[in-house]
Write a structure and sequence with these properties.
It is a single chain. It is built from 4 helices and no strands. The protein is an all-alpha fold. It has one domain.
Length: 63
């Protein structure tokens, strides 16, 4: 009984195939966020670079 259950479970997993990250995180399920206007975004990023205390946020704003 246990080996039959294991066999059915493994066949189910094997039949699913690979799932690409783009399908899950891309436009199929969650959609893309709209791009902000660069005229508004650039001053916001410069403000983050100058004033934010979190180094990770500053690094993200710089990249």
């Amino acid at each position: 009984m246990d080996s039959r259950f294991f066999l059915v479970m493994m066949l189910g997993v094997a039949s699913m195939g690979p799932v690409h990250a783009g399908v899950i995180n891309g436009s199929l399920f969650f959609g893309k966020k709209p791009v902000k206007n660069p005229v508004e975004r650039v001053p916001e990023l410069i403000g983050i670079l100058k004033t934010d205390g979190d180094e990770d946020k500053r690094a993200d704003a710089a990249s």
